[in-house]
Amino acid sequence: MFASRILRISVMLLSVSFVLMLSSLVLGVLQRHDVIAYQSHEGGGVRLYLLDVVTGLNHPMTSGETVDRYPAWSPDGARLAYVSFTGADDMAIIQRMDANGRNRQSLIDARAGYLIWSPDGGQIALASQAGYGVINADGSNPRDLAQLPAWH
Which one of 55, 111, 143, 151 is most buried, counting C-beta atoms within 10 A? Predict the structure, then answer.
């Protein structure tokens, strides 16, 4: 009886944690200590910005013709991964940059949506309507974890 109650509480806490994580991803807002990465539709496009919660200043992190979404901080807060949609075909490029906006790197072309880093920062998990995948943090070794059926 006691063990089943503990199990139910553990499952409930995991569910709440999962919902909070997904809420952050859906809103495109993830926090790293005193800086928040977010996406905004200001200026006609979708760009990534950093909000310094100490000074209140916004810093644009991306620009150009792409639609940039779903920022995700590495566990150590040193890097930011995001999805950059490049055109009407819904193709996306997973991008990574240092927290200061330098050292931008295109990791992999993918039809990805949400991103989350592994706890050790060595991999990035990708989620989309088509399924789930994982890549190494440098973009190498892409793997499909699960493909979802197409719903018609």
Answer: 111
Q: CA end-to-end span of the chain, whole Å?
A: 44
Q: Give me 95's structure tokens.
A: 């991008």
Residue 30 confidence (pLDDT): 47
- Catalogue the long-range contacts made by 42-50 (C-beta closer than 8 Å, 24 or more residues apart): 48/80, 48/82
Q: Which residue has the tokens 């509480």?
A: 9
Strands (E), 86-122: 92-98, 105-110, 114-117
d(C-alpha 86, C-alpha 95), whole Å: 12
* Nearest-angstrom CA–CA distance, 148 and 129: 7
pLDDT at position 110? 77
How large is the average pLDDT for residues 23-37? 57
Gyration radius of the chain's alpha carbons: 17
Q: What angle do CA 49, 53, 57 make, to 5 degrees?
A: 55
User: What is the per-residue pLDDT across 33-85, written as a single tens digit (0 to 9) for each?
Assistant: 678 888 888 766 788 888 888 888 888 888 877 788 889 999 998 999 999 88
Take residue 29 and report the two structure tokens written for it: 């807002």
